[in-house]
Amino acid sequence: MRIGVLTAGGDCPGLNAVIRSVVHRAVAGHGDEVIGFEDGFKGLLDGHYRPLDLNAVSGILSRGGTILGSARLERNRLREAAENWHELSERTGIDALIPIGGEGTLTASRMLSDVGMPVVGVPKTIDNDINGTDRTFGFDTAVGVATEAIDRLKTTAESHQRVMVVEVMGRHAGWIALESGMAGGAHGICLPERPFEVDDLVKMVEERFARGKKFAVVCIAEGARPAEGSMPYEKGAIDQFGHERFTGIGNRLASELEKRLGKEARPVILGHVQRGGTPTAYDRVLATRFGWHAVEAVHRGDFGKMTALTGTEITTVPLAVGVEELKTVPEKRMYEAESVF
Amino acid sequence: MRIGVLTAGGDCPGLNAVIRSVVHRAVAGHGDEVIGFEDGFKGLLDGHYRPLDLNAVSGILSRGGTILGSARLERNRLREAAENWHELSERTGIDALIPIGGEGTLTASRMLSDVGMPVVGVPKTIDNDINGTDRTFGFDTAVGVATEAIDRLKTTAESHQRVMVVEVMGRHAGWIALESGMAGGAHGICLPERPFEVDDLVKMVEERFARGKKFAVVCIAEGARPAEGSMPYEKGAIDQFGHERFTGIGNRLASELEKRLGKEARPVILGHVQRGGTPTAYDRVLATRFGWHAVEAVHRGDFGKMTALTGTEITTVPLAVGVEELKTVPEKRMYEAESVF
Amino acid sequence: MRIGVLTAGGDCPGLNAVIRSVVHRAVAGHGDEVIGFEDGFKGLLDGHYRPLDLNAVSGILSRGGTILGSARLERNRLREAAENWHELSERTGIDALIPIGGEGTLTASRMLSDVGMPVVGVPKTIDNDINGTDRTFGFDTAVGVATEAIDRLKTTAESHQRVMVVEVMGRHAGWIALESGMAGGAHGICLPERPFEVDDLVKMVEERFARGKKFAVVCIAEGARPAEGSMPYEKGAIDQFGHERFTGIGNRLASELEKRLGKEARPVILGHVQRGGTPTAYDRVLATRFGWHAVEAVHRGDFGKMTALTGTEITTVPLAVGVEELKTVPEKRMYEAESVF
Amino acid sequence: MRIGVLTAGGDCPGLNAVIRSVVHRAVAGHGDEVIGFEDGFKGLLDGHYRPLDLNAVSGILSRGGTILGSARLERNRLREAAENWHELSERTGIDALIPIGGEGTLTASRMLSDVGMPVVGVPKTIDNDINGTDRTFGFDTAVGVATEAIDRLKTTAESHQRVMVVEVMGRHAGWIALESGMAGGAHGICLPERPFEVDDLVKMVEERFARGKKFAVVCIAEGARPAEGSMPYEKGAIDQFGHERFTGIGNRLASELEKRLGKEARPVILGHVQRGGTPTAYDRVLATRFGWHAVEAVHRGDFGKMTALTGTEITTVPLAVGVEELKTVPEKRMYEAESVF
């Protein structure tokens, strides 16, 4: 067989581990050929690819990023791919495609699968918000980076009797904020899933100071928003790439807390350090297993699926399940974490 | 309510996180009192304990070890505990006990439960070999430490064209070797679950050298053993504490490989660094959830159980399930890892 | 003897290591008594202090922050201290004071010394900009944190063909930017010591893209400023605490580069994670040696001095030397780093 | 100019950083050509080398090991090199050689320099025992790895009321033991420079237990030896490579302490993890500066020298100075560390 592999969407620790594992299993295990498309679906459309043998993936297991590059695909080009998938497959000689990516990539994969392309997706997101799988690789690394930051910030907060507001990634789902907040022992956690009342945060900090704990750490997801009327909140300026820039919720909340508390509050916006660099052991194992099982799925013709973690097993679930809704933090996980506001 | 908590058995990153979480949930959530017994079951028997309030567990989330201490319990004293549990409970005023520990501790807990003591266990082992739960806290930290070591050893192995043999923990189950071997990209993995053929390892190394990869890393569990007749193997001397000392399988295998290959092979015995120190974010979250749910189980009278991870949920399973058999690495996980010998 | 110790100014990894070392050397080595003033000079003025024995400093070597707390002192209260130092010494019974702090603290120490108080200062700053010592503790940790961040950001930059702008600490001296930029292999480094030309950065990035390296990382000190006319630059709004908030140079530069290059550029503002948390081994050793030698200086009556690293030796230099000028990055270090703009 | 570079001797974090820096400075700074000899002096003798341009050293700054490989050289082949250096230079076209290595390599470099070869050495050792330079790269990384291990072991020691004996590298000089022992807060430190009395260690542990600190950590250099008559000590078996195997001082001391104290004592032999893997920021900066200055020395004809750190400056000192004696831990540093036995 000849299998194509590509990575698309945002950077995520573990991408290279999946690529390596696909090559190991396909080439060494089945005697397949593997080719890697460059810069995501673009490489498929433009015929930019290179053969991947064992040497090509040597030493990449622990490296962040993706040796294949990644790029966003415009919608019309995706349609082009769907319409010409047969020709594209023929031209590149592939019998199956393994796209590694997030929600957008899996949606594209589903489209290609729906028109007949033999596709097995591998879900990828540091946000852990893809449906149908217990976890995604990259998430553990992101939580680890955020937790280490909170650990560091706590000592400063305590020494200076300050409030620290740490903004972590998560536009629509608050998994990183939830787990790094729990792991770091944050006193307040704010998630996109539940609008927060600033008053409650103020009260929590004041109660801490009152019983002699003269500092607090709040961990807030970038997508968290205050409850209606809870604090002044206008949408920031939108840049040419569609992002609301430099006026994130972390900065705003720190400013608001400082004003209301009359105590120093400092924001820290972790940003892209959460999504790059060497993956944790957990993510390397999960990514490696995903790659291995994606090749197995290809060989048993289990197309239109994506790999998934279900308990301790790697399974496959329909791509349709993966993209049908975002997996957000359920109420009971918030309840259990106690410090979610 | 008044809840007793104790930690028993070997050190394990996350013990303090469980203790803290039990106190937070019980005291802040339910208005309970919590007391901590010192040095495991000994503290229960000898009446050595101290009250644990929120301040007592402040700042311990990220700390390794256990603030309560831990100690092995002789079998006859355990019988003593079982016979007098009612009096012991009365003397200390506890309505329920949360013992945090490994197989031995859970077996003891089951004994106490069988005679009527209200017990909810929390499983603990860096080895990940307790039945009935997907994972135990401490395991992720151990795998992380071992993986970082393999990462480091690989560069030396490569620069010096050497074979490195890394011995990791795991007397009866090879989970740490399996996952750190996968995460570190070890070329050979040896587990207690499957006797290894030295010839196969020799062949693997020679094939690597033949295709220009002039180094290899073997990750071996301390409990792994060569197949009958595969290499000279006599049991080492046993010290006063019952351990086979200084002649572990890592040293023996490195020596044997060096002899057969005629190439330098170096053993590294990771030892106790795998079981101490600050827990990973993953382990802190799991430990915190276990503690929280143990208190909930106490409050709903769900005794004779232990907390467990089942997929993404924390559940409780009978203590009997937890101790009925060791959870070892199944065949399919070995197959999937490819480099298991 | 009875020695007072206090920590003042911003958080800095290694403060606790100094405190511990002072206590170890004074109490165990000389049979002294040590008291710790709370929240810097405030504790001295208000008579808030506590005895520090070996148990009081147990386990703090690796902990960030300061067990004594820290606070800014208003200028008029400092005068109060200088005028009443004799009475203050008498009231607290101290024979000598060891203040641990940055430029402000050392200036205050010098004032106290000038009026006759027996003072031995210990210099502290993550910025490494105190004169008279080769290095200060805290700096190595800050550089380590920043370097790890750059390592992580590089893989994302490369995978996404982006420019990453990392803003690190350093208002007046660029040591952190210089060394973390070198250690992380940043392609551009901007320091407060030398106004940068945006055009040069643009050219550097374009040349990289031209030769196939389709990403770049710029490491910029928070105090770096563009050369006159090099890019639009107005001072940001000043908050109630006198800080220019939320409009730092990192954000501005990323925005400007994106506009000029027509490529995605992302800012990451590391902020307070650089100044908290567990110190590196290097900083622990340096801090421990500083503490030890401060006590020795006290015992030989070597007052009006601060400890300093000179090559491999710990020496003392006059406080006047430490505060006479800021130690900034000299031209030749910039030249040597090559990527300084 | 055409400059040759090679790495020889044991693995050391930072080797790749030197190679990269030599290439950057020579190629980009001076328009030189650089060639890299493979496997140390062997590559020079056998004419195995490859050109090193900017792309060849891309991404290696943070990687452990050496892209050029390393190997021991037999003494007679070294003589061969000395006798034929002129021909070797001509054959490979080099105008100068930059050997990066430890004592053996620098001695060889001196021999080559003495017969007229234009050589600038770069000193390398994780042991920090080369004369004439304040520090060598690799040392900081080794100390960091050892310190993290001690941090981890301490929590286990404390939880289990045990003595932990950590054996770190250092056959002839105890720098790693000294600094990691200080940074980790070891209660006993044993160095090759001073035979230790087991009785003193026993007394220290007993005193700790007596005042309620029921654990201890001893950090011992592999080359440390007990004082005459202090404990039974016979030399272990010597293997085919000349090493005394599997019977190191760490194991012996733990065994002896256990016997004398009647308490559990556990050895941990850190081994090769100390010498591989990604270098710390400190080591990357030092290695980069060494590489840069080695090229400058070549260009100003400053041959027969090695680069050195002198305070904050990089200087050059005669190779003769670097190899005239081992830089061991002086008495005053032991005194200052307090816990050296």
Backbone structural class of chain A: alpha/beta
- What is the level-2 CATH architecture name of the largest domain in chain A? 3-Layer(aba) Sandwich
The count of β-strands of chain A is: 11
The oligomerization state is homotetramer
Q: What is the strand arrangement across the widest sheet of chain A? A: 3-2-1-4-5-10-11
The coarse overall form of chain A would be elongated
Largest sheet of chain A: 7 strands, mixed
Q: Report, as a whole number of angstroms, the end-to-end distance of chain A.
A: 52 Å
Domain module count of chain A: 2
Question: What is the N-to-C succession of helices and strands of chain A?
Answer: EHEHEHEHEHEHEHEHEHEEHH
How many H/I helices of chain A? 11
Largest interface: A-C, 48 and 48 residues
CATH class of the largest domain in chain A: Alpha Beta
Helix content of chain A: 40-55%
Q: Give the CATH topology of the largest domain in chain A.
A: Rossmann fold
Query: What is the mean pLDDT of chain A?
Result: 93
Binding site for ATP (chains A, B, C, D): 10, 72-73, 102-105
Keywords (chains A, B, C, D): ATP-binding, Cytoplasm, Glycolysis, Kinase, Magnesium, Metal-binding, Nucleotide-binding, Transferase
Cofactor (chains A, B, C, D): Mg(2+)
Binding site for Mg(2+) (chains A, B, C, D): 103
